[in-house]
Design goal:
mainly beta, 5 strands, elongated
Length: 153
Amino acid sequence: AAAAPSGELAAYRPVAVSSTAYAPTPGEFVVDRLASPGVRGSGWRAAARDDPQWISVDLQADCQVTRVRLAFEADASDPVFTPPATGNPAQGTTGKEILSSYALAFVVETSRDGSSWTSVYRTTAGTGGVVDIPLTRSVTARWVRMTAQRRSR
């Protein structure tokens, strides 16, 4: 029998998303191993519309999932870009402000069939950046989904 996959299970796997903000930030950026906090445009960005927004990764086989790592483009220390009501949109900025967000409230779920989902982690106090989530117990799953119920911006 073939050995069960281990290591970074999501790398280069198929991704589905609820929405995408614009072409340069597709869901596939989440699994290309290049997403990095602080590097703008290196990950998926959901459209600026009502939450919830979600992303799911198809691991393409049943795998033992023991932890989930999320890398948000922004974190709580990033200055927020707020354009002026009129005039030059860059007026009064330092150039470091961002439009990116991170999930304040989110849930991580797993599934074996892509239809029935089981919550394995939930928070209402997300801080963005890199979030390592060790699961309390190993879970057999083919799909992993993160649903952002409320975003920072």
